[in-house]
Every structure is written in C-alpha cells, then in structure tokens.
Amino acid sequence: MATTTTTVPNAGPVSGSRSFLSRLREGDEIARMITFLFAASVVLVTVLLVFELWQGSALARHKFGFNFFRTSVWDPIFEQFGALPFIYGTLVTAAVSLLIAVPLGIGAAIFLAELAPARVSDTLEFFIDLLAAVPSVIYGVLGIFIVVPLMRQYVQPALKHSLGFLPLFQGPAYGVGFLTAGIVLAIMVIPYIISVSREVLLSVPRDQREAALSLGATRWESTWKVVVPFARAGIFGSIFLALARALGETMAVTMVIGNTPKISASLLSPGYSIAAVIANEFTEATGELHTQSLIELGLVLFLLTFILNGLARLLIVATSQRGSGMGQT
Amino acid sequence: MSPRLRWRKFVSGFMLTMTGVCALVAVSVLFLILGYLVYHGGASINWNFFTKLPVPVGETGGGMANAILGSAKMLLLATLFGVPIGFLGAIYLAEFSGSTTAFVVRYAADLLNGVPSIVIGIFAYSLVVHPFKQYSTLAGGFALGLMMIPITLRSTEEFLRAVPRALREAAMALGASKWKTIASVIVPAAYRGILTAILLAFARVAGETAPLLFTALGNQFWSPGWQQPTASLPVMIYTYALAPYDDWHRQAWAAGLVLLGLILIINIVARAILSRGIAVPRT
Predict the structure, then answer these.
(1) Interface pTM (ipTM) of the complex?
(2) Angle B117-124/A28-56 helices, nearest 10 degrees?
C-alpha cells in the first residue's frame, strides 16, 4: 500500500523499527495511545474500587478498630456494630459447602479426566460449564422452594434423630440455616472445582500414568497415588477458587440462611453472612456509621477473596507449568 | 489371583465407579434445575408476562414487562461501557504493551474479576448513586459493565494472541502499518473468539442480582429515561420469591425460567460460534 515508501528508509539496524514520526503518521502511535488509555482505565477502576472501599469505611474503622471483628452486637439504633456473627456465618457456610463440594467435585473431575472417553468428557464438561452459568438468584429460588422444605421435613429431623447428640445438630428444624446455605453453596461451587481440576488433571503427563501402571498399579492406584498427587497444587487452587466464590456469594445465601445475626454451634440454626447483611441493610441503613460499617464488611469480603484468588491462581499456574514442562522433556 | 490383588482390583473398580457417580450427580443438577423451573414456571409464561406491568397484591395476572425492559436497558449500557474497555484494552495488551504494563493490567483485571458482585454494587453505589442521590438505570448499567470488563479483556487477549504469527508477518510484509494489520487482519481472524468472549460476559452479568440491589433498586412501574430506579428481571425474581404470596411465587418461577433460558441459549450460541472458528486457543 501507500506506506511502502516510508518503511524502507527507516529500517534502522539497531531497533529494527520505524521512527516515532513515521509511526505517528501511519496511526500506530495513535492506536497505541488510545488502546493504552483503555487498558489503563482497567487499572484505574480497580484502584478506585479499593480506594472507595477504604475511604467509605474510614469512620467505622476509626470508631471500632479491631473490636469490629471481635464483638457480636449489631445494633443500628445505638450505633453499635460488631461483625462477628456475620464473619462466623460466612466461614461456617463456606466450610460446609467445601466439605460437600470437594469430594464430589474432585471425584467428578477424576472421572472426566481419567476415565471418560474424550467425547463423553467434553459433553459432560459442556453441561458443567452451563451449570456454572446459572445465576445465583436461580439457585436461591430453588433453595427456598425446594431445598428448604426438604431440609425441614426430612433431612434435619433425620440428622437430629441420628446425630442429635452432637452439638452440631441440635435445636428446632427451621429448614433455613447454616447447613442449608452450605448445601446450596456446595451445589453452586462444584462446577468450578470440576472444571479447573479436570484441566489440571489432564495436564499431568502421560508417562506418569504409564509408569505407575507398568509397575503393576491398578487403574485407581495410578490415579490416586500418582496422578492426583502430581496435580495436587492445582486441585488446591481449584478449591481456593471455590472458597472465594462461596465467601462472596450473596443472593442464594441471603435467601436460605435465615438472616438472624447470632452465633450458634448448631448447623441447623439460622444465621447470617457478610454478603447477606450488606444485601439486606445497605439501602435501608439508618445513619452514616451504619453505611460505613457495611462498607467495611465489603472491604473484609474483598480482602478475603483477593487473597484466596491470588493463592488459587499461583497454584493453578504452577501445576499446569509443571505438567507441560515435564511432558516435553 | 491372590486375595490381596483381588481386593485391590475391587477397590479400583469401586472407587472408579464412585467417581462416575459423582460426575453423574454434578451434571444431573443442571437438569434438575431446568426441570423444576419448567414445571413450576412454564405454565405462568404467557403473552401477559412479557407485555404487562406487575399488578398489586391480590389481583391475578400482570407481568414483568418493566423488568424485562429495565434489564435490557441496563445490559445495553453495560455492553456499551464494558465491551469497548475490555476489547481495546485487550488489543493494547496483546499487540502493543511491554511485559510489565501487561502484567499490571492483567493483574488488575483478574482482581476485578474476583471481586464479589455485592462489593461491585457498593462501589457503583458510592461512585454513581451517592453523588447524585438517585438510584438509576445508569448506576445499574455501570455496575454490570464493570463486571463485563475483566471477562471481555482476558478472553479477547487470549484469542488475539492465538492468531498465528504468520498472518501478522504476512500483513507487515505487504507494508501494512501495525494498526492496519490489527484492524484488517488480526481482529478479523480472531473475531469468532472475541464474539464468544463478549457473549459469555453478557450472559454472566445478565443474571447478576447483587450489584443491582442498591444501584438500580427496583420499581413496580415503567422507568422512563435513564435516571430513575428501574426494575430488573433478577431483582424481581429475588423480591417475588421472598414475598409471601403464591401468585408472586408463580411469577418468580416464570421469570427464573425466562432468565435461565436466555442465559443458557446465549452460552450455547457462544460455544457454537467458537467451535466452528479458526484461531482457537487451547484453554
């Protein structure tokens, strides 16, 4: 095209690229600057988000300090805000969800990566991806109309009957509560565990399996004692990812946890979570301090997920590099 | 066969079967969800649902036309806001940037992607709602657009990088400038992937509820213009499902079916576009 004349004389031996002016004339510099502005705005928005959370919670941070995390009185009228019940509820529901989701998710991932023929595996993975796309409010609807009645009528009475001597399963069966929220969360995070773990397991080099099998291991032994340990870091990564999702999940939890700010050893009792209290009280916050305390909760949530996501990414990258690296040698 | 070997074989067979059961359970959840939604919501989907306003408690009938329009408006805003930033940012990352800048931008995008949606809601509230003292369609669209940025950015970048080097070199060898190469060779070669990325980002935010709770709020009526509180399908599902009226529950199921149907269709279309494309990165 018309640009040929400008490119030839400028082909300098050192840089190999054209001069600034000629690049400007051809639009390269302009394109570069424009796209840079857009890329930079991503960073800007992220920094602004952290800044707003920090700034928006200044009052609450100064007034309560560390007591915010240690006290459990949440009283908008007397302006006393202690976040312990919400933090407790968030952690307990996330723990319950992982207890259910991790074995199921890893089991399914092993099936998809090790056993199923490629076509079956891809088809199932397609369904798993669709499952990951289901919005959380839909899980919430199914939670209150399907899971809660089931829990109230069958599961919770049965648990009380068989395991009622444990403090974990005492008190009346409301249907809503930590256990129900944990179960709904588990259903929501299983697809993430499966997708990521499957990827990681698939990246384990073939030689590892063949070596185990040739030593006389059964198929399960080669999977469980060789392949899974090899992919261990990545699988932990998928679990952290799921944990981050579970901690930050709002709608489904709000709909089934019972929204009662109390700390109870029993999984059957209703509770509250950080995300749920923000969702319920933010628009109706009575004073500046109330709003600021809710924003501080948002900050806590942000920091938790930030740390977990970072760890998860490190672990997943480390494993897939290890897998592909050894596969090539 | 020694008893020990027989035992090991039994364990192997049993555990492998169990993994199959796990996979079956996980996948069957999707069909359970769809089944329940169709069973409870299918009957309530009719012409009125798409064309009528919600009616006061006690009256039957009515629909969610205002919520559907509200969602559409906010998704339009979100796309107009999130996609250009994600797309052009990705071009910068894939074609222009040095590795340090790229790392910072990618890191910020991943960070943004991991932020819980309720926190995005707080951010949009303090940035858009609080200064103007007004819940609005605009604020809702902004919150959703924020969530679209990282998804569009990261996958677009991947697809751009997957365009074979030979194509770039061929264009450059013909004397095309860099931006001309990008605009007429690289982006067209990756367009299926980019389209998929945008569709998936769209589907992801279409069902988001938490960021809308205190940005768009809700509305029982039409919301003219862009600066008033507006109803949206996900928030409507949430409020209707928690309300104590049977008629509202039916509507919530119906709205859930419509929303999930839309999201699944977009997902399937997006994947279909991708599977026929060239320049597909192995993800």
Answers:
(1) 0.92
(2) 90
Q: What are the tens digits of pLDDT across the range A167-203?
A: 889 888 889 999 999 999 999 999 999 999 999 999 9
Matching residue, tokens 């940012």: B89
Q: Do A45 and B149 touch (CB under 8 A)?
A: yes
Cα A263 to Cα A273: distance, rounded to the nearest angstrom: 11
Query: Among residues B102, B212, B87, which one has the least CA distance to residue B159?
Result: B87
Q: How confident is the model at residue B274 (pLDDT cuts 50, 70, 90)?
A: confident
pLDDT at A17: 56
Q: Measured between alpha carbons, how far is A51 from A74 in angstroms, rounded to an integer?
A: 25
Tell me which residue has tokens 């399914």.
A108
Interface test with A, best of B22, B106, B107 (most A CBs within 10 A): B22
E strand or H helix that includes residue B180: helix B178-181
CB atoms within 10 A of CB A24: 14
Whether residue B269 lies within 8 A of chain A, CB to CB, comes out as no
Instruction: Give the per-residue pLDDT at B177.
Output: 86
By C-alpha distance, which of B144, B161, B9 is closest to B70?
B144
Three-state DSSP class for residue A102:
helix
Using one digit for the tens of pLDDT, what is the confidence trace for A26-72?
778 888 999 999 999 999 999 999 999 999 999 999 999 999 999 99
Q: Do A133 and B119 touch (CB under 8 A)?
A: no
Which residue type, as a one-letter code, is found at position A186?
A: A
pTM, 2 dp = 0.91
Q: Is B169 exposed, middle or buried (0-12, 13-18, 19+ CB in 10 A)?
A: exposed
